[in-house]
Amino acid sequence: MAxxxxxxxxxxxGMQSPKWLGRCSSCxxxxxxxxxxxxxxxxxxxxxxxxxxxxxxxxxxPKALHAINYEEQPRTVTVDAELNRxxxxxxxxxxxxxxxxxxxxxxxxxxxxxxxxxxxxxxLYVSGEESEHQIKMRAERLDAPTSDCHVMTETSTQNIxxxxxxxEPEMLVIDSIQTMQSSLVESGAGSVSQVRExxxxxxxxxxESGVPVFMIGHITKEGTIAGPKVxxxxxxxxxxxEGDRHTTYRILRTTKNRFGSTSELGIYEMLGxxxxxxxxxSEILISQRDEVLSGVAIGSxxxxxxxxxxxxxxxxxxxxxxxxxxxxxxxxxxxxxMLLAVLEKxxxxxxxxxxxxxxxxxxxxxxxxxxxLSVCAAIxxxxxxxxxxxxxxxxxxxxxxxxxxxxxRIEQRIAEAQKLGFKxxxxxxxxxxxxxxxxxxxxxxxxxKLDEVFQGVLM
Length: 459
Hints:
Rossmann fold; nine-stranded mixed β-sheet; Ribosomal Protein S5, domain 2
């Protein structure tokens, strides 16, 4: 009997060490090393991990790049337009996709709904967390047509591959990767070595068979996907399913994609009958108000190829304590500090002793600098207690000199504002090269300095 080998793994980052360490030298976390068995006697034959003897006898030979034959494979376009967008146009054959999110956010519901709405596609849905009856109960609630979707409850990767070899699915869903267990590793399910080994087996299966594999992953309390960091490097696409469980809206965001853009997002609404696609997210990101309030401005942002009109809310008041508060939700706090300094230095607004609170409505996190102008407008509107008309939008970046700078793809931003019924939009005058104002019904207001903006909307 061969000697069983063990080693120590950091449960936070996956670093390997031959002995126990109090503090991980890679991620700096304390007391995270756990001893795990890394090798058994002899691996089983007939699994996707070892293409053992044949691969060793016929070692691959390098090929010249120009000699490699390549034909672009057609993507599988689903009925879910939001998923198609974040994947870059559809499901790529042989791709390995990892979906992470908080417990109860709707990851399993999303994947089951997709599996049930793929007409003519044989899907194998493998669950290691729920029984067949629980999955059936969820499927009955979903407002989705029945398709060739087959369900199996199993946690052993070797058993899954045996079934897949005879069943020959066209798409495989794993719920979740942390519950899977390979007989090639002795440690328990969910450990660093098990998650890494199971992911490697599914990756080999996807690449060799050409079957796309979707894996659901748990996340840690810090919001990162549980398991070693190498897990995200191994897969082709990483999707993050975000949202507040107390609200109905969910955001599917791409953080890594080898087949498309990483700046796309899809928006869903969680209903009793499943997840509904939100085709016009600007309508839910802008609050419906009976009266016009001060401190509210509408800005234009881009997420990938999608323009969004979002509501910026600001509240400015005299500080009752010695140190004024600067708080922002969904917006970079350091950038807020910079814009406040610009308003005080270049605009003459005395904000040094004012508490400033900023909120991006709808729960979005915004990094697009094109909303700088709307942030400044909302802050000054609250400071002066003068409301901005609800038919006015903003799309420009603000520099340290108080200048209004140009932003990318201004035509799409203007068209989105016009589609939603806005009457005016303030943009940088340096953005108007090649833009014909006569082509738009909305009034385009070119500005170069912050003073021109405030004179136009607050006077």
